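Residues determine shape. Next comes a sample protein:
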Amino acid sequence: MRLQFAGDLEGLGEGLRLLEQELGFEQAADGRRVEVTRHEENRLTVEAKEDGTLTIAYRQRIHFFRALGLLLEGLGKHGQAPFRLEEEPQFEMNGPMFDVSQGGAVLRTGTVRAFLRKMAVMGLDMLMLYTEDSFDVKEQPYFGYMRGRYSQEELRELDDYADRLGIEMIPCIQTLSHLADVLKWNAFKDIRDDHETMLVGEERTYEFVEQMLVAASEPLRTKRIHIGMDEAWKLGLGEYLVRNGLKTKGEIMNEHLHKVLAITRRLGLEPMMWSDMYFRGASRTGEYYDRESVISDEVIAGMPQDVQFVYWDYYHFDEEFYTEWIRRHKRFGSMPVFAGGIWNWKGFVLNYGATFVSTNAALSVCKREGVREVIATLWGDDGTECDWYSALLGLQLFAEHGYAKELDEDKLRDRFLFCTGARMDDFLAIKYIDETPGISPDNLELYNPSRYMLWQNPMMGLFDENLRGLPLNSHYAEMERRMELYAGRNGEYGFVFELLRWLCRVLALKAEAGVRLTDAYRSGDRETLSEMAEGVLPEIAARVKELRNYHRERWHAVNKPFGWDILDLRYGGLLMALDTAVSRLTAYLEGRAERLEELEEPRLPFQGQEGLVDCYFYKWMPTPSRIAQ
């Protein structure tokens, strides 16, 4: 479609050029005229009038780019017929945070640019890259060493690109804990409280904090910065305790926060931080969401007022809890930022059941309670096995909440198809790879069986007692068929389903393999053991290699190479475990091994829990022996 834009176009030209191919239009002097008006009202409108005139009215640049998408979508639906759409933005900040540190995956700059273009069309106006050590600090060569850290120039170029689309890039770092990959180096041994938390009160701690703050903020236009400070589990119980004696976590947090904020003030930065440590410090059990916890007036009085507190929560599915916790945050004297989650961090499979239920509850409450800034977190915990692009529907969900007082799922479905060319119902169906027989609808228990079924050793079967009796092979055979269908009808994002197809192809044989091995051995069924050794296990290994090859291809297309080494170790370990299983079975069948002690060991429910379970970390899946602490 050829379009000619006229009117209030200041600051839009470069973004329009970036989106021409994305949205399938061309700017031309003889194109259909679009009258553009910028106003101060908190609304955006698009209209195709009876006389053929096209109009866009907007307040912020990001609203214009969303409105442009709405206009083109409307023209595609209505043809020459007139139509008018109006939306009221619900938030002043709404956008994703990508974790490019914890799981090893660091998005290539080209991938970030691709997400920024999609975000602009959706109307999302903020991007954070969560970087514990994934950015260059010139004074510290071991900071982010061999971890794919972004250079200052890469961050500057991304910020320029985002700005053209009306999107603010906000740095997101850690200035207290979550720094295990930094503090492991001896270069930082003098500022350790424990293995992942810095030593509060130590002068060099604050020299280092200032170096991080400068390095993270200098390449970007914004003065806002997220300074982290969450999940300092043993704050004050390591070297700090030795030097200072026992103090409450609230006291230590305030001590540290005031020192860090003295630096941000001097640098002219506007910080925000995670709020959980104040709640944990007031809880007898150290929990964030402890309803019995009471943060004292004294602690609140000591909290500085020039920092925003970010309430993160993706673990609740009812509006009542979100209402209570937002109101508890308001006691701090300011309106919190809310951070929800797109559940991508429990393995290969994005839990869209939990994502939709938690997000719908949380954002509905945010709108009622006056929360004006929200973040959609995408964590990379423990390997970043999930493909980033599987989260596109989650981004669209946050976007549509951001432009309507109440979510319209039919509109969400249409918008997702327009913005991505992909089908909402197909993306929703990703959840069924983990929502197996034995799991309740939407999987609000947050179980991740596909992950531990993949990585567990078939001769150890740590989860076999939990899997016993479930028709899992047939479930995954059906899911393989469905993923193949979806891969062929979701355009440029077919690869999301293709990766999952290879996963399901492995699990269609492997899910019940451990149970079959154990039962055959204990019943003396040598025929089945022979079938497993000669046919099933080698076929599983062949399918694992196919999965790995495709996964490796996708990883390197989307992420920097750093971090794939973790998955090489996992795939290599699985392939060697399968090889050993064949060797052990063969030795037994040929009389060279008298017993298979691994299969004689009684199978116990994982962690004593009956039925399917959640297992968060890979290190628990292949073996009961110690992999890492």
Remarks:
- The first strand starts at residue 2 and ends at 7.
- The mean pLDDT is 97.
- Residues 46 and 212 are 44 Å apart (CA to CA).
- Residues 2-87 form a domain with the Double Stranded RNA Binding Domain fold (CATH 3.30.160.230).
